Amino acid sequence: MFDWGKKTYVMGILNVTPDSFSGDGVLQREDEIAAAVAQAQQFAADGADIIDIGGESTRPGSTPVTEAEELARVIPVIEAVRTAVSLPISIDTYRANVAEAALAAGANWVNDVSGFRMDSQMAQVVATANCPVVLMHNRSKPKNVAQEERLGGRYVGVEYDDLISDIKKELGESVEIAIKAGVSESNIILDPGVGFGKTVAQNLQIVNQLDQFKTMGFPILLGTSRKSFIGYTLDLPPEERLEGTAATVAIGIERGADVVRVHDVKPIVRLAKMTDALVRSV
User: What average pLDDT does this structure show over 254-276?
Assistant: First the structure.
């Protein structure tokens, strides 16, 4: 159902966590399953194309959860959302067992922030399911995290020989893992990993040079929503980063993004439609 290049697809973020950096995790609400369903239905009404459900915060400096806890968070939500909306559901996880259970519960995509690097069984799960997968570049290391109370965590002191070339090389290695496991090339989507082991300046460069990743021959997902590089650029906390997010999405679309992963679905759907009219018109 995805005609890559024809339009920009919008992925709505549904965090089943108590500690999302953006403050939108549904575990902060009294009835998390009802809250998750309501949010998914609102995303659908606002024009989202995909819903991305995750049960572990990946913000800089976050504390990992156990596999059992992640399963307990996401599976009931996926089951409930699946009955409530018809949109494709993506499971945001780097664990093979969680991905397999999520696909059985009604998810359609896997979004692996490790690019198949964290769990050696993940590639086989995706290959067996024959489902789309987002392979993200990630050089996150706790030692590179700097925290600021108002603006949150950011990465500092992260060095690359050549930022774009290094990311492309490492994404290529993830693609090789996928192909070797039997994942169809037509199911692969690449994410350069804005915010994951990159400094503020490096994140800005990735967005500005997103077109460099199009040469790899796969659809590109861009995830910039409310991230700290926007906050540090504008000196604004997460809840005030919509305009900054919108700027990155517009530039990202112009540079070739096929999917944008966002918290604020309604305004970004409108922005994407307008930007598409400008840059994808015949």
Answer: 98
Set 261, 266, 270, 280: catalytic member: 261
Residue type, 64: P
Asked if pLDDT for residue 247 goes beyond 70, the answer is yes
C-beta contacts of 5-8 below 8 A and 24+ residues apart: 5/258, 5/280, 6/280, 7/272, 7/273, 7/276, 7/280, 8/253, 8/257, 8/258, 8/259, 8/260, 8/272, 8/275, 8/276
Whether 261 is catalytic: yes
Choose the catalytic residue: 82, 198, 226, 227: 227
Mean pLDDT of 164-181: 98
pTM: 0.92
Distance CA 226, CA 247 (A): 11
Of 207, 203, 187, nearest to 195 (Cα)? 203
pLDDT at 234: 98
What is the token pair recorded at 210?
């997103």
Q: Which residues contact 128 (CB under 8 A, 6 or more apart)?
A: 182
- 141 is known as an active-site residue: no
